[in-house]
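Tutorial, part two.
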Amino acid sequence: MDERLIERFVRDGFVKLDEAVPADVVDECVSLLWAAIDAEPDDPSTWTRPVHWVSNMSQPPFARAANMPVVHNAIDAVVGAGRWQPRNGLGGFPLRFPHSDEPDDTGWHIEGAYTPPGETSYFTNVRSSHRALLLLYLFTDVDEDNAPTRIRVGSHMDVPRVLSRYGDRGASGETLSPEVDAASSHREVALATGRAGDVFVCHPFLVHAAQPHHGTRPRFLAQPCIYPANGHIEAPFANSDSPVARTIRAGLRG
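Running the prediction step on this input gives:
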């Protein structure tokens, strides 16, 4: 990832890597995703839900997609070499379908990463414990009608001050979502559109949201967490001058 893309990541909180996953790997992954759900690619009468959740996709094609050199190079550039763990798959997928029912998961939020003792929800703290990045992998072509993820451009700069109120324990998504929504409501919205095989590299504090599907073809997307390396789990960006670390510190200063 060159300096131009790093500067864009620092400014906007995300960058897109075009054609990061080759077409043959995409096709293998898509075939496995269709096989995992009770729906058929060419029979819209079987698309009976607005969202199918598929979990734990770690077959070899997904492992290859997760470990493309261009993706690893981008993570090194914004997180820091040696500070994150490679993945052996892409985890869960929200597969979105054209449907008259509205999905119930379209609120503005940041991703949670850990569950404190005695809690059942995922929490986030200002140190970004247990999360180094969010990635978005497109496995189908996505235009503005096909439920692209909505992104508030630059919102990663608004979130550190919200999180700082909750200390090291952090807070749950239920608590944080309305607060990060309000803090970033002035931001311009971008859509995560692109071609199958594109990958969005997103700051862990980027405010984003799903939306209903108004197109004609299903949208397949992965949203894997990049975990910090052992030794950096609780504070991935302590004593770091990486782009993510710099933006968290700048967000705290306001």
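The two ends are 27 Å apart (CA to CA). In part three we will examine how such features are distributed along the chain.
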